[in-house]
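lol ok so funny story. i was supposed to be doing the assay writeup but got distracted and ended up predicting the structure for this chain instead. priorities right. anyway since i did it might as well share w the group, maybe its usefull for someone
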Amino acid sequence: MKKLIVLVAMVAFQLSVQAGRMFDANQGRFLSRDAQGYVDGMSLYSGYFASWLGVDPMGNCASKCESTEDGTFTIEFNTFIPKTLSGAKTLNQWFPGPGFNNVDTWVDEAGGIDYVMKTDNRGFGGGSSRFKSTSVPIDVNDIGNLEGKGAGLITTTAGISERAYLNKRLAILVFESKTAKATQKVTVKDISPCQTNITIKASAEYPFNGGGFFAPVIPAVDYDVTFVLTRSEADGKHYGAINGGHDKFPNYEGRIGEKWRYAFTTTYSTGLSTIYALNSNVAFTTPKGRILGE
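and the output, tada:
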């Protein structure tokens, strides 16, 4: 019975017998002095095989990526309709002259002959978005240990979509406003003590889809992206990159910390062909960069 208790305790505390001495895999050291003295180095307790080979007898990797930085950061991936889309008509082309505010922020709806969509009235660099995923602040020292903290880490939201069309019979403009339903699946995976991958798979249906002929091809928003967050073994600093894919909804951008890492602009043209173009896919990978500074 005593032998069983000792065995259970050794397994629970990750202790093993190596060369006649008890070895603690958690600390990477022996619990007693080396009977042969300083034959393996200047420490009588160190498990030198752990530091030389990077593993201990329990198969655990010896961590070499000690952090040399402190701070928090957020990540974001979003899509938006930019203020300027070449070749698109605007409300100003329907009704020249005064009477409408920001008429240049309305552009052709994809494939729509008589519909225009309101843009997000911006270019790259953040701002209002049609659809986006953002994180809560992440501590850089949690990189490599984020799996258990994945719940609530990412929130995906859809912005308000507005469109207008000309009722030719009544000769009036009709305005509509809807919010798309957003869905997300987030996977947080600690690849090693030095790396965490956060994958976001998100989508939103076209908010004005009423069915009919265009229902299968009306553009939605779909992206599947992975944020690769690492801590360098060389200098203890933190780095990030983004890879994955998305459809060709007009503009996409991705951010890690204060730095925008990714920017995409589709080739937009009027007419039915635009619908099919927006539903095609783009794959990308960004270079690795510092999270807390360049």
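DSSP finds four helices and 20 strands in the chain. The longest helix spans residues 2-12.
back to the writeup now i swear
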